[in-house]
Amino acid sequence: MQTQFTPTLECGTDEAGRGCLAGPVTAAAVILPPSYTHPLLTDSKKLTAKQRCALREEIKSVALAYGIAHVSHSRIDEINILNASIEAMHLAITNMALVPETILVDGNKFNPYQDIPHHCMVGGDARFLNIAAASILAKTTRDDIMLAHHQKHPHYGWDTNKGYPTIKHRAAIMAHGAVEIHRKTFALYPKQLSLDL
Q: Among 17, 77, 128, 133, which has the minimal tally of Cβ within 10 Å of its Cβ?
């Protein structure tokens, strides 16, 4: 895995929660020291929860700068999930103490941020350390938010599914209806079978 794309003050940015039925989309942006490396640092989805939590503290302690931001379920319904994800990444970059010279984005869609060059990287969280670091901060922070919501609405199983569309989550929506943090523009209910009459 590469530490940097170019020898500049470079940040990686990524989001978590894009495919969820409930809760915010959370993004992070991270600038790591140019020479930094870590044997476990990779795409957050490839790590255990324990590894992610340990790396979160490591990243926060070694990063030259990092920022985290959330875009709410209601804002997602207003502007759609793609735009909300990009907005969250912009906010995370804004929340950093340093202004990057280059932005590496996980994925293939991004809107220009100020006049800073950016590069979209499909699978970037498995290829670039600063994007991997951002994915871990975004994932762990959002997981904490969904665990807090689970205390209020335990029947949706957010302690395990974190708002993603699992069978248990959809069944709970069928049984109890949607609550305030569900994304109303998403397909919350299972598709119904239809007959050609």
A: 77
pLDDT in tens, 20-68: 999 999 999 999 998 898 988 887 888 899 999 999 999 999 999 999 9
- H helix count then E strand count, the chain: 6, 5
Residue 137: phi, psi to the nearest 5?
-65, -40
Rg (CA), the chain: 18
CA atoms within 13 Å, Cβ hemisphere of 92: 34
Which sequence spans correspond to the domains of the chain?
10-147
Q: Residue 89 in contact with residue 15, Cβ under 8 Å?
A: yes
d(CA 185, CA 2): 38
Tokens of 114: 């100020």
Contacts of 73 (CB under 8 A, 6+ apart): 22, 23, 24, 180, 181, 182, 183
Report the predicted TM-score, pTM, of the whole model to 2 decimal places: 0.90
CATH superfamily of 10-147: Ribonuclease H-like superfamily/Ribonuclease H (3.30.420.10)
